Amino acid sequence: ELNYQAQSPDEGALVTAARNFGFVFRSRTPETITIMEMGEKVTYELLAVLDFNNVRKRMSVIVRSPDGKMTLYCKGADTIIFERLDRSCKKLMKVTTGHLNEYAGDGLRTLALAYKHLEESYMEEWIQRHHEASTALEGREERLDQLYEEIEKDMILLGATAVEDKLQDGVPHTIEQLAKADIKIWVLTGDKQETAENIGYSCNMLREEMKDVFIVAANTTEGVKQELQYARRKMCPGAAEEPTVTKVRAGLFWLKKMETVQDEKVEGEYGLIINGHSLAFALEKDLELELLRTACMCQTVICCRVTPLQKAQVVELVKKYKQAITLAIGDGANDVSMIKAAHIGVGISGQEGMQAVLSSDFSFAQFRYLQRLLLVHGRWSYLRMCKFLQYFFYKNFTFTFVHFWYAFFCGFSAQTVYDEWFIALYNLVYTCLPILSLSLFDQDVNDRWSFQYPQLYSPGQLNMYFSKKAFVRCMMHSCYSSLVLFFIPWGAMHDTVRDDGRELVDYQSFALLAQTCLLVVVSAQLCIDTYYWTTVNQFFVWGSLAAYIAITLTMYSNGTFLIFTSIFPFVGAARNSLNQPNVWLTIFLASLLCILPVVALRFILIQMRPTINDKVRHKMQMEAPPAPAPRRPVRRVSTRRSGYAFSHSQGYGALVTSERFLFKRPLKSLLAFSIQTDLPLATNQAKLFRPIPEEIEGSQSSQS
């Protein structure tokens, strides 16, 4: 049983298909290739490997057959191969072009194959020059490219192959859900234009109901500019000719100045497809803003025939002029530059190797897992972090502002309003664990409702939960709470006596009352902010209050005072204060005045201006939960899917012809903005070779 390990899944599929027709690849060494041809063992001598790269877009081998004939075999993109064919192949090339179009219409990835017989004398000289170029210390790549270009001419067309490229399960559904979440998706692929368009339709990115799909394919700077302007004017006729660039401040303390291109409203949905040649002109300094402006008006952007460097340049362009977070996802070596350029890089571990995974921030095996990563865990994480920050600022600002008001009554002597031990334990024990549990377990809606309503992701993109305005509101809330927490206890304790007629007004009793009110209020505020209660939340909230009471009674007891007289001076303060009814009434009144306005304001906002979260939470209470998502979603079948694709990574010809066998698996690529991504391969199945028509069968090019 043979088990092939190929440089790419395409090659593995083609070799397997050849085996099914009686041509079995059996073994190889650095110098030979052994094949069973219809049951007969034949050994070819491998003379040279002309590697693939993203400029050549083809790969060739030179072999010597057992009868001494030397032949060059070449495979690559149809446009590249057709340019290097002999004039006698025009008729066959026309027929093969029809076959290629038919394959592309069926959603297959295509390659063209050609060969060339070589003379012995010429090959001896060429091999000598090839050896000198490959061992040169300077200009090695340029010299090798010249030699490759010299020998790959006047070839005879063999025919074309087609490989079925199946998408992973759930890719179209995942992209559809991300689009509903208002996430911009740009596809960056090395495929030709027809292939990229088919990929767009297969993934529900391009739809028939779109008003128009613009194609930018000009080969000059002026032509690209005109096509981009035509698309922009058609989408938004009333827009200004020059883009609106706003300078904003960002970074720490807003010291960094950034330029931002403002979004423009467009009625309807549009798509944009741009090829690599046009993209090279569009990324120039004087056209990059026009490209970004036009692309951002479109619902779907597909860049085809792009190089790894262009992928990174597109990501950098978005990062430079848009206040957005970019995510790049890919599964191979040619996505590494894009993954590193984005804010967040995601690598898919699969048939294309581990290069993308090793360069990424997150990695998983299936593209559909991106849906749960963003719409569930990503959204929950953002919600928890915003609540954590707001509560953290609230409890510490309230704690500090009480000192500010107390300074007016202590002559600004820097005396603390609280017990020193309470100050030490406030953040360390009393308020630490409750907010930790909220930031770990809280969720506004469960994962089923998050999948059902991807629009829940939108508030995070708009910074609705934490921003400069939210920070100012938090400070105002803290200022109000601190006023209540200081002046209510101060007014209640002023000229107050105990049940036995003794005075209750002293510094220690007031400090105990103020710190108790503070802890009750911040704990109640945390309970209001908690959407999802668990056993851990309950234990930490009530446990923290219980710990405060236990520690306070212990530190203020007579026994602790006798052992540590100078450390715990508040002896008897808790026992003398907490047994008075008016003290408990003061705690209740201060807590009510702090919490009641918050509850009332939130009730009014939910009734008058409910957010998408409020609507879904109300629906969650009224309706039954949606069915859980299937573990293997059913892939939608489309009549149009991917065509030609080829690896962008440098080949491994040097390793093949050396003593070391180290086969890597580079990749086919894709996507980028707020999300950039690559649609990974699931399986590859080879189709039959297209037979040569009978009228051409007698020609020299009829070996297919």
UniProtKB/TrEMBL annotation:
Keywords, in A-Z order: ATP-binding, Magnesium, Membrane, Metal-binding, Nucleotide-binding, Translocase, Transmembrane, Transmembrane helix
UniProt topology in membrane: Multi-pass membrane protein
Query: Does the record's keyword annotation contain Hydrolase?
Result: no
The cofactor(s) it depends on are: Mg(2+)
Q: What is its main location?
A: membrane
Q: Which Pfam families match?
A: Cation_ATPase (PF13246), PhoLip_ATPase_C (PF16212)
Q: Please give the catalytic activity noted in the UniProt record.
A: ATP + H2O + phospholipidSide 1 = ADP + phosphate + phospholipidSide 2
* UniProt EC number: 7.6.2.1
Q: Enzyme group, top EC level?
A: translocase
* Ranges where the P-type ATPase C-terminal domain occurs: 357-611
Keyword Acetylation among record annotations: no
Q: Which sequence ranges are marked TM in the entry? A: 388-409, 421-441, 470-490, 510-533, 545-571, 583-605
Tell me the compartments it is located in. Answer: Membrane
Which domain of life does the UniProt lineage start with? Eukaryota
UniProt lists the family membership as follows: Belongs to the cation transport ATPase (P-type) (TC 3.A.3) family. Type IV subfamily.
Protein name, per record: Phospholipid-transporting ATPase
